[in-house]
Amino acid sequence: MECNTLIIGAGPAGLTAAIYSARAGKKTVVLAGAAPGGQALETFEIENYPGFKSVDGVTLMASMTEQASAAGAEILYERAVKADLSLKSVSTDTEKIIKAEKIIIATGAKHRKLSLPGEENFIGKGVSFCAVCDGGFFRKKHVAVVGGGDSALTEALYLSGICDSVTLIHRREEYRAAKALADKVLSEPKIRRVTGNVTKLIGKDRLERIEVLSASGDVSSIDISGLFVAIGTDPDTQLVAGQLELDEGGYIVTDALMETSVKGVFAAGDVRATPLRQIVTACADGAIAAK
User: Fold this and answer.
1) pTM for the whole thing?
2) CATH fold of the domain at 113-229
3) Fewest CB within 10 angstroms: 28, 104, 189, 191, which?
4) What's the pLDDT score for residue 233?
């Protein structure tokens, strides 16, 4: 199978790239895996995507998928399992070989989770991985943030501006974050710092409280409306490992046109090195990459 543009991944970046590529008259193929949507499917309600006062992730991504298909993109529910970027050749899990003139990698990234019982059930019902995305749902409420890096402290500071209180939980007293961020957290009266590990999530229809185990072995129970998990993300770059330049976090390095270190191969969305990972920025990346 041959095409002009092969897009690996069908989240906001991949589907936007598909829309722009197909509308430009290019034969466009999208490898969507089991289902299009990416991380956006985990977002129960989205209030910061332009044009929608409120929309759930499933509805938004279904609309993007329909639009890409209507524009002429061919969406295959197959997964890329092997790639030779120098030859612009990709093999899928159905043993199909696709050769393209250009490839756009939009495989995204995955939030690291706490791996606690019930965590999956509470996602969108009290457990979140993005304060900018979901913080507005917890205005004037009590929330907690787990993590000790730049992302966790940034999330805690952001939430302190809209929530009644924020409990910042980290397994060590020292933070991995930049000193400037740590100093801001220390001086913010709304942020309460707790040293320990979250060991249990408790609630019926929604998350209601958590249990934290301290280094001394003491267990405390904290009543909260929301828990923001900020212990890092892992880019989905296994397919292209060793073929592209990556940064120290494993994200694909691109220029302003989304081109990677291999000519004719582009990256868009959360899989690339970028200062902000949001649906709207992923869409912008996809449009630029396709152009």
Assistant:
1) 0.76
2) FAD/NAD(P)-binding domain (3.50.50)
3) 189
4) 84
